[in-house]
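Posting this for the archive.
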Amino acid sequence: MAEVAAVAGPRTTASSPLGSPALPIGSVPVDASQAVPTGVGELDRVLGGGLVPGAVVLVAGEPGIGKSTLLLDVAGRAAAAGRTALYVTGEESAGQVRLRAERIGAMHPGLLLAAETDLGLVLGHLEHHRPAVMIVDSVQTVASASVDGAAGGVTQVREVAGALIAAAKAHDVPVLLVGHVTKDGTVAGPRTLEHLVDVVCQFEGDRHARLRLVRAVKNRYGPTDEVGCFELSERGILGLDDPSGLFLSRSAGQVPGTCITVTLEGRRPLTLEIQSLTVASALTNARRTTSGLDSSRLAMILAVVQRHLKVPLTSTDVYVSTVGGARVTEPASDVAVALAIISALEERALRDRLVAFGEVSLSGDLRPVTGIGRRLAEASRLGFTRAIVPRGSLDGGAVTPPSGMTVLEADTLVEAAALASGSTVVPVDFGRGTHS
């Protein structure tokens, strides 16, 4: 009879002796795992207090948005505090990084700079210097000699990230990795890269505007609903404790086609201005152009305005934009967008010192939004005295409006439009001018 090959069964013995025994969870020391502030308050807000020893943070964003400048500032602040910071650059020369450090005031003896793209040499610098923080700019430029493929490939990125994570955990050194993004804004490389690291921070902003936002889309050590606000200037990138003023125009008084709203970026309320312009279209299909807003959301709001306010928009070009390069994603801005469009069509400004927020449904009704208390408080702090909100937003008196703030509740967009103009009916005469 032919011999039957033995079938491997499950392992029943330990592959190696225990390196350390398991401990009761209450006996596990936590002193070495406390977050250390970076000195950049807005970044600490996003990280949950600072950098945890051994943590690996991936900072991703479009080219030229300020990732390298921010992390070089973090390294400079660590060096200024008497700790050693290692900055590994694989994209720029050491001289280029030094020029940037001089410009932003990050020149300190404790800031070490190495221009390396070989993984073995990067790990050698980490072993030799044992820094308090290490920055690798970027993970897509470092390659391992033991793995085939060019730097930035799926295999290389996975190998490099795995080796850096293992070294960070072994030496309790926080490592910040700069990551590239693809055309659709996702992190370049294998999806496992985001699963391997402890924190993933997304750097957002319009390169033509000063504002930059850093949000954590994954954070093992803190919240994922916090947003850090920065301003990019010639002196570097500066944290903004109060960024609301960046999103408001400097014009005196209300002007037609504008409406103010309050959005929530994480737990932070931001007051911003929605601007709209409407003109008669010379095209068969009228234009719908947005900047800072979702185009599909605008199309839905225009359909609601046309259907429920009986506004003919098929032959009207509509342009809607935010001020200061802000991006609006939450539905709470629907009412402000609709009121800005109506104001532009009327060529008449809304009531002075007015803010509006609420979600617009396809039926034309207004839906309450979260964080109503924080939105009202922020608007009041900036001098606004009237707020249009969906009915029921005050939760039967559970939410108390700030002193001096008049809250106007509306059930429908038609009601909101009337309240915004100070009338009891919608004051729109769409049968005149170019909008007929």
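The radius of gyration is 27 Å. Residues 425-436 have pLDDT under 50 and may be disordered.
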